[in-house]
Design goal:
By secondary structure, the protein is of the alpha/beta class. The protein has a single domain, classed as Rossmann fold (3-Layer(aba) Sandwich), CATH 3.40.50. The protein contains four helices and nine strands, in the order E-E-H-H-E-H-E-E-E-E-H-E-E. The strands form two sheets. It has a seven-stranded mixed sheet with strand order 5-6-4-3-7-8-9, sandwiched between helices. Strands 1-2 form a two-stranded antiparallel sheet. Helix 2 crosses helix 3. The longest helix is centred in the first third of the chain and has 15 residues. It is globular.
Amino acid sequence: MKLEDRIRDIPDFPKKGIIFKDITPLLADAEAFKHAIDLMTEHYSDKGIEVVIAIEARGFILGAPLAYNLGAAFVPVRKAGKLPAELISAQYALEYGFDSIEMHTDAHSPGQRVLIVDDLLATGGTMKATIELVERLGGEVIGIAFLIELTDLNGRRHLKDYQIMSLIQY
């Protein structure tokens, strides 16, 4: 099954000049969605993953079923102001300015084996900030997984010390 056949390009979204990779057709195709989750599960099934951390919001769609399949805990990383308990935060660069993400301080224990999941690897800034949060709490990043990787943006350069898996490359 070619998963990329279920990804829709939306030109000029969210702003002119951007071609948005819309994953909703893949999600709406039960067989394709299952196949994507199964491929990720197979890739990580023998890695001893204890915690799957997913980045808001589309990362949650992939991370929760993956955590379930791996028998791992699920932890959300959210944008600022969305989590209720004690938290840590990290900033990352945007095209114009900065944004931040947060995670609860009790999200995982030191030494736990962590997989971080998001829908798309572009520049790598959000993933790098998430890795910072995990490592500040003593987690061991075993891998980082994406449904889609935009290779022209070379996000891997910021993540070169980590095992990266992406199912679709553009």
